[in-house]
Design goal:
- Helix 5 packs parallel to helix 8 (218-246), helix 6 (167-181) crosses helix 7 (184-190) and helix 8 (218-246) packs antiparallel against helix 13 (412-420).
- Helix content is 31%, strand content 20%.
- It starts with 15 loop residues before the first strand and ends in a 9-residue tail after the last strand.
- The strands form four sheets. Strands 10, 11, 12, 13, 14, 15, 16, 17, 18, 19 and 20 form an eleven-stranded mixed sheet that branches. It has a nine-stranded parallel sheet with strand order 5-4-3-2-1-9-8-7-6. Strands 21-22-25 form a three-stranded antiparallel sheet.
- It is built from 18 helices and 25 strands.
- Bound molecules: alpha-D-galactopyranose and zinc ion.
- Zinc ion is lined by residues 124, 126, 164, 166, 168-169.
């Protein structure tokens, strides 16, 4: 049952619409540009601007000498214009004086080269100097603006990422390993370090992975990613300490990056008050545009699921994204579609990078609300203003939840070890693509989905709200996961697993006693071997009288209690099981043994979701490239029907009739909650 969540910013029960804004680049022109910016912001229906990101050099031009006057002035202007400030800590880029005076703040790369000053997002997270400077500036900001009427949200740094291999970080990594394992004996065992004479006999021998050093201890590689995640968590907590002490009621966030591989976002989300992220879909505007739509929807669902509540779309491009290989313009309606899509999946804000284009440097051609031309007379400005207008009429949807009864598993630790695994298809196990393929089958049916990881599976009670749990390629089974999955199926849930499941434990050691390890009993199968196919090879899966193509990976399994639903069509394993179901307790556990084409997954989930009691938003099938996603407060469902095609589409919305959607159009339909579409039953 869905409920309504409180506003992200207290006393602002509206959708927030706005973006990153760098008034510090325009201080010399403040009398004209800043005033004009306020006028343009209001005209575009903008009520939030993120300021101070990358402003350290403007805020502290000399060590210990702060210059807050410009920020005072712009925040006052924003307050006068009823614009909420997402106020950033400036730590994502350093002033040059700091790098020069304290070289320890500069990172060391994986190959142990020390970087020079430059770029951004590249400070050492361990450096005591960097931490001290961060505390000082964050404290000064919080003290100065604690009572400022514009202050709404703290934006901590910007897009944490990368890693540092300096001596300070090496020492901290050793401490982390000591804390994790307690003894070298335990570490050696967890890392299987007798292999190639890797046994460690003193903690000082331990080093982070390096291309010219250690790369083949998979347990080490995994621990390094876990440590890097903890570094970001720890640095974030360090950054917010003064903010929480001085402004305890102001929510804090940092902008995440979808499936960015460098840290575990589920872990990071645990310390955020509200989750936010930066979304830059690669719209093609052509026939295959829906592929980008599926991925964007997946990443929105993932972001919402990190905390299971509405999130902030902190950045998106109002038009071209300059770092894409092809910086294509948004076709008419695409900007509205991209913005409504975020809201459909749980965003309570639509924000851009950025408000005004920077005149010089690396991002001068990135899409922005205000172009170099400077006026409101641009296509992009009008597109943004249209979104502002539409959001202003959507207050009832703000704060609503997502009534998902299906969860798909996406797990960073699993991804790290799969990417590291040597075997199967080297460097091409395709975890993201595999998860997206399963997700697509639900997207195309208009079934809302949560995306969860092993930590959430193992959280007591977390699976209670789901009827269907899908875990593509869950190669690593972390502690508590098998127990929770078993209990879920026993009490009536439906579980779907695939090829390459249950092969390694939480330190990347293979399970002995047969794959899929601790899921063997629940799935009722034993996976004996995995066959990898060359790109030009294929096999087929015969199910329900139909034959579906198979690529890449085929697992040779034995049914041990499971019923065989589908079989392989060719090769030496023709006739052997390729699709099984096991009745376990009151539920069912399916196993898809090979990588199939999307058509199979659509047919399979159409049937399996139906059998599990999971209903699509509309009874009638949706046209290709159209999805329907729902937000709900438990009383009213708001159904976002979105056409990702460059051509019109007709959607059968049941009792609401047939709607004709223009290319890239979004239509929002209201329906009482619980009243499922009965029209075509
Ligand atoms: C990221 C950053 C922004 C900007 C945009 C450009 O999301 O956070 O500062 O560089 O990319 O797309
Ligand atoms: Zn370091």
């Amino acid at each position: 049952m869905c409920k309504r969540y409180p506003p992200i910013v207290k006393n602002a029960p509206r959708f927030l619409h706005g973006g990153d804004y760098n008034p510090d680049q325009w201080i010399k022109w403040k009398d004209t540009i800043w005033k004009e910016d306020m006028r343009l912001a209001k005209l575009a229906g903008i009520n939030v601007l993120s300021v101070g990101i990358f402003a350290w050099a403007a805020l502290e031009p000399e060590e210990g000498k702060y210059a807050f006057d410009w920020l005072d002035e712009i925040l006052d202007l924003m307050a006068e214009n009823e614009i909420i400030a997402v106020l950033a800590t400036p730590t994502a880029a350093r002033p040059a004086w700091m790098s020069k005076k304290y070289p320890e703040v500069l990172r060391v790369e994986r190959d142990r080269r020390k970087i020079l000053h430059g770029g951004r997002h590249n400070h050492c997270l361990t450096s005591p100097v960097y931490r001290e400077k961060t505390t000082a500036i964050n404290t000064a900001l919080a003290e100065r603006y604690k009572n400022h009427p514009a202050l709404g949200v703290w934006h901590i740094s910007n897009e944490y990422g990368g890693e540092c291999h300096c001596p300070l970080c090496q020492e901290k990594f050793r401490e982390y390993l000591k804390k994790t394992y307690g003894s070298l004996d335990a570490l050696n065992e967890a890392w299987w370090s007798r292999f190639w004479a890797k046994t460690f006999t003193d903690w000082s021998q331990l080093e982070s992975p390096a291309p010219q050093g250690e790369t083949c201890i998979h347990g080490l590689n995994l621990d390094w990613m876990r440590f890097t995640t903890e570094q970001f968590v720890d640095f974030y907590l360090h950054e917010i300490t003064p903010l929480k002490a001085i402004t305890p009621d102001v929510p804090c966030t940092t902008n995440l990056m979808g499936t960015y591989p460098g840290f575990d976002s589920f872990r990071m989300a645990q310390v955020l008050d509200v989750v936010s992220w930066d979304s830059y879909p690669q719209w093609t505007g052509t026939e295959n545009n829906a592929e980008a739509g599926v991925w964007a929807s997946f990443t929105h669902d993932l972001t919402r699921s990190l905390k299971g509540r509405p999130f902030m779309l902190m950045e998106s491009s109002p038009s071209a994204t300059n770092w894409r290989p092809v910086a294509k313009l948004h076709r008419p309606n695409v900007h509205m579609l991209q913005s409504m899509q975020a809201v459909a999946h749980g965003a309570d804000t639509v924000q851009y990078f950025q408000f005004r284009k920077s005149r010089g440097s690396a991002e001068k051609f990135h899409g922005a609300v205000v172009d170099h031309e400077g006026s409101e007379n641009t296509r992009v400005f009008r597109d943004v203003a249209d979104v502002g207008k539409r959001l202003a009429g959507m207050d009832a949807i703000r704060g609503t939840g997502t009534p998902a009864e299906t969860a798909i598993v996406y797990d960073w630790h699993n991804r790290w070890v799969l990417d590291d695994a040597k075997g199967f298809l080297q460097n091409k196990t395709g975890y993201n693509a595999a998860v997206a393929a399963h997700y697509r089958a639900f997207w195309q049916q208009g079934i809302p989905v949560d995306i969860i990881d092993s930590s959430l599976i193992a959280t007591p009670g977390h699976l209670d709200k789901y009827r269907l749990l899908v875990a593509p390629m869950l190669y690593m089974i972390r502690p508590g996961v098998a127990e929770a999955v078993n209990a879920f199926v026993e009490r009536g849930g439906t579980f779907v697993a695939t090829y390459i499941t249950g092969q390694v434990n939480e330190t990347d050691l293979c399970f002995t006693g047969g794959f899929p390890g601790p899921l063997r009993k629940c799935l009722g199968i034993w996976c004996e071997e995995v066959d990898a196919l060359y790109p030009e090879d294929s096999n087929n899966l015969v199910w329900n009288g139909k034959s579906y193509e198979i690529h890449d990976l085929c697992e040779l399994i034995h049914a041990e209690g499971a019923q065989v639903l589908g079989t392989y069509g060719s090769d030496f394993y023709a006739g052997r099981p390729a699709l099984t179901v096991n009745n376990f307790g009151k539920g069912k556990a399916y196993f898809i043994a090979a990588r199939t084409v999307p058509g199979f997954l659509y047919d399979f989930y159409r049937k399996t979701a139906g059998d599990a009691g999971v209903k699509p938003v509309f009874n009638a099938e949706l046209p290709q490239g159209v999805t329907a996603q729902v937000r709900s407060d438990g009383k009213t469902d708001y159904i976002f029907t979105m056409n990702f095609n460059p051509s019109p589409a007709q959607v059968d919305c049941g009792v609401q009739g047939v709607k004709e959607l223009a290319p890239f159009e979004t239509v929002i339909i209201e329906r009482p909650s619980g009243q499922h579409d009965r029209s075509s039953q």
